[in-house]
Amino acid sequence: MAYTKIHAITATVDKAVAYICNPEKTDESIYISSYACAPETAAIDFKYTLDHCRENSPNKAYHLIQAFAPGEVSFDEAHQIGKELADKVLEGKYSYVVTTHIDKGHVHNHIIFCAADNMEHNKYHDCKQSYYRIRKLSDELCSEHNLSVIIPGGERGKKYNEWQSDKNGTAWKTQIRKDINAAIKASSTYEEFLLLMRAKGYEIKGEAFGEDAPKFISFRPLGKDRFVRGSVKSLGREYTKERIKERIELKRERKAVIPKRDYADKRLIDTSDEKLQNSPGLQRWAAVENLKIAAQAYNEVGSIKELEQKIAATATTGKEAKQTVRKLENRMKDLAEIIKYTEQYKANKSYNIAYKKSKNPDAYFRKHESQIILYGGARRMLEQAGIHLKGLNIDKLKAEYRELTAQKKELTATYKNCDKELKSLNRKLENLNQYLGRTEPPKNVQEQPDRNNNPAR
User: Fold this and answer.
1) Global confidence as pTM
2) Could you report the per-residue pLDDT of 376-397, keeping only the tens digit for each?
3) How confident is the model over 157-182, as pLDDT tens digits?
4) Domain boundaries, the chain
5) What gap in Å lies between CA 457 and CA 451, rounded to an integer?
6) Which of 64, 144, 433, 435 could cross-link 111 (Cys pair, CB 3.0–4.6 Å)?
7) Which residues, 6 or more positions from 32, have their beta carbon under 8 angstroms from its beta carbon?
8) Which residues of the chain carry a pLDDT beneath 50?
């Protein structure tokens, strides 16, 4: 498994990059990679992008750490996972440096990326949602590399001792949440909820509503010295008194609505179950339910042969869309880097010309060192990419990038719809095969996860 955390860098980007690139920690700089910048001049590259940014945030870069369990991953694989994580999180828009530190008991990756993207020069939005996305992508990569995965929960990231306490059920805030959830489930009104909580031994204050009422409801468990507020900061947004009342009312509304039965995605009931075998009434009920499930499947898909053909066609469409998205992402990443270096090359070319013509080149270089370094680095990277420097058209490159973005969006929607449809179609096929007693159903053609064809999300 891999633990992740991220924090902003508001100063000394050069020192932060120097730390993560320490040769003693990276096996003599073997485990250092970068995108759209050079590790040696990353701080200068970042500053160039930030200077074009319209937002006035103090954040200059972000430092993302991905730590693996001891002994679970090799140095090479850890570094590869770090690069894949950076590409998936940043989508080829932000310059970054990724390194793998091997000097501790556990291998861990450091990713430092510019706070502004290279395309629109917008700042990276660091929030809970973006952190959960990082954690989700890290877990997916661990799963693809056959590493253990942290079981996801709906709460904020915790320190290890907090996480362990929650796992064992010993954290008393966690117990309060569990008791509140159980009371909500058993209550029909807000007043019943309060009675149930008091019956569990809780002392409650601030439960009233109105202008003069306290802002927060507070709970004190039996045997504890202090109250815990039902606030977003303390227990979470689901445990304010307004939200508790709303959850109870929504539960009551859902009970009042009788939904129309849809058997499309239901599984056949196993009639060999011991409970059904001992109850003729349950057997009749199961037989009727299974008939409805099979009948709806037949009505929607026609014959089994037609269903199998549709599954095969949908699987092929989805796989081709995924492969195309992966190719588009690779092209977009390369193109974004070319655009960044093209802008850098054009913006600083005049400084290089003036430097060559200067009567005192040393003094000119000291004054415009950053611009001259950026020009040289950009020119070198463009030449390595086989780009002809004469006739560089930044507008044409950006137009191509926008077109690729639109294609990716359309194809991503296609393969996600195909994945969703495949699950439904395969469920129908499974039900029909089971209902008709086909002991050797056709091979499930739903495509298996393929990390080589799994686009960034």
Assistant:
1) 0.64
2) 999 999 999 898 888 889 999 9
3) 444 444 455 554 446 788 899 989 98
4) 2-152, 168-256, 304-452
5) 13
6) 64
7) 21, 26, 39, 97, 98, 99
8) 152-163, 168-170, 440-449, 451
Name the token pair of 312.
Answer: 């095969």
**Domain 2-152 CATH class label:** alpha beta
Give me the phi and psi of 271, to 5 degrees please. Answer: -80, -5
Report the distance separating Cα 366 and Cα 373, nearest Å. 11
